[in-house]
Amino acid sequence: MIVETPGLERERYWSNWSGNLSVKPSSVTYPETVSDVQKLITQSRRIVRPVGSGHSFSNLVGTAGDIVSLNRLKGDVYAIDETRMVARLNANKTLNELSHALNARGYAFKNLGDIDKQTLAGAISTATHGTGQGLGCLSSEVVGMSIVSATGEVIVASETQNSHLLPALRVGLGVLGVIVEVEIRVRKAFKLRRTITFEPFKDVLSDAASYWAENRGFEFYYLPFCDYAMVITTNEADGPNENTGGGDDESGLYQMRRVRNLLSGWPMLRRRLLNFVATRIPEEALVGPSFEVLATERNTRFNEIEYHMPLPNGLNALVETVNHIERALPEVFFPIEVRMTAGDRDWLSPFSDGPRMSIAVHAAAEDDYSWFFSDIEPIFRKYGGRPHWGKLHSLWYGDFFALYNDFESFWKLRRELDPHGRLLNTHLRRIFGEDGHVVS
Questions:
Q1: CB 385 within 8 A of CB 309
Q2: What pTM value is reported for the model?
C-alpha cells in the first residue's frame, strides 16, 4: 500500500475534474489489495473517503481526513458467467478501461453515459446514466457487489447472499463501504449507429415522445438563444464502421462562447446568427462498437446541475428553464442536455419510482455558477425533480426524506454499518443529517 502524505514543505491538494472542488487531505492512499483497504480503514482515526476519477461536481470526496484511491487494484475483468451473462469486474477501473477489456472478450455494457472516464464504482454509486426509454442507469444492472465496510469487514451481497442489501448498495454514494468488486449484467458486443441532426426546437418538443419510442437511444441539446436543438439518436447496427459529417464539438463550444461574449447585449442578432449556423451544419453519422459510439471526449471543462423529472413534468420544466435563461441569464451559452432513463427499485436511485427525464444545465469551469441554485434549481424542484447525486445541488437530508420513499431505510442501514460516521465528509453529513457525527 502506497501512502502519500502532504508535508509542510510541499502542500498537496486533491481536486476534481472541473476544478470546483479542492481540498488538502491528511493523506492520499493507494491500496494494492483488499487487505490494504481493510488495514487503512481499521487503522485510520480520521474520515475516510473513496475517490474514483473525480468526475462528480458535488463534494462526495473532499475531506481533511484520508482519501483512498483503488486505481492500483490489479485486474479488470475477473470472470464472465456466459449462462447468466454477468461479468465480475474490478470496480475501480474506468468505464473506458472495462469497456475495452470486455470488448476483447466479445462482451459489452448494455448502456453507457456520454462520458466513460468515471470508475465503475463511482458511476454506480451516483446512478450515472445514459439515455433510452427502455434503458436503466448503470447501477440497475448490478447483481452483486463486494465492499469493505467502515469497520473493515468485507461484505458480499448478491442475488443469493445478503440480497436484501443490494437495493441500498447499488446507489450508495460511498457511505456504506468502499466498493472493490461488482457483478453486472452484460451482453454480447454490439455496434451502434449514431446520427446527429439540427432540428427546430419546437418540432423536437412536439416529437420527443416519438423519438424516444422509436429509437434505442435518444437525447437532445437545446442551444440557448437559438431556435434549434441538436438531436442525437442511437440504434443497433451491422456492417462496416462509418464516420461521416462529424463536427468538432470543442470548436462549436468555442464559437458559441464567442457569440455570447460579443452579442449578449443584442439577443435578436445573437439568435439570428446562431440560427444561421445551425441550419448549415451537416448531418453526422457514426457506426462503431457501442462503447465508442456512446462515449465522447469532453475537453472543455464545465460545472453542471442535473435534475431528473417525472415524465409528465419533464418538457414543461425544460420550457420554463429555457424561457428563464433567455429572459434573465444572457451569460449562458452551453447547450442544455435532455435525456430519459428507465425506472428501477433501488432505494436512492433517482429513477426508483419509474422512468424520468433528465435536464442538465452547464457552465464553463471558469465561470460563476451560483445561478444554478438561485435560478435553475427552483424550477427543477417545482416540477418534482430529484438531483443527480454527482452533480451540483443545494439539498439536505430533510429534502431527501420528502423525495425518496426509501430514504429512511437507507438512513437506518447507513447508521447500522457506520455508526460513527467514518465514511461521511461534511457534504454527506448534511445529506444524512449527521452533523454531530464528526471524526475529523
A1: yes
A2: 0.95
Nearest to 94 by CA among 148, 48, 55: 55
SS3 of the chain: the string is CEEECCECCECCCEECCCCCCEECCCEEEECCCHHHHHHHHHHCCCCEEEECCCCCCCCCCCCCCEEEECCCCCCCEEEEECCCCEEEEECCCEHHHHHHHHHHCCEEECCCCCCCCCEHHHHHHCCCCCCCCCCCCHHHHEEEEEEECCCCCEEEEECCCCHHHHHHHCCCCCCCCEEEEEEEEEEECCEEEEEEEEEEHHHHHHHHHHHHHHCCEEEEEECCCCCEEEEEEEEEECCCCEEECCCCHHHHHHHHHHHHHHHCCCHHHHHHHHHHHHCCCCCEEEEEEHHHHHCCCCCCCEEEEEEEEEHHHHHHHHHHHHHHHHHHCCCCCCCEEEEEECCCCCCCCCCCCCCEEEEEEEEECCCCCCHHHHHHHHHHHHCCCEECCCCCCCCCHHHHHHHCCCHHHHHHHHHHHCCCCCCCCHHHHHHHCCCCCCCC
**CA 415 – CA 394 distance, rounded (Å):** 23
Residue written as grid cell 461536481: 57
At residue 1, the pLDDT reads 61
Contact 92, 52 (CB under 8 A): yes
Q: How far apart are CA 353 and CA 345, in angstroms?
A: 7
C-alpha cell at 421: 460516521
Alpha carbons 174 and 149: distance in angstroms, whole number: 10
pLDDT tens, position by position, 304-343 = 999 999 999 999 999 999 999 999 999 999 999 999 999 9
Determine the average pLDDT of the residues in 37-63. 95
The mean pLDDT of the chain is 94
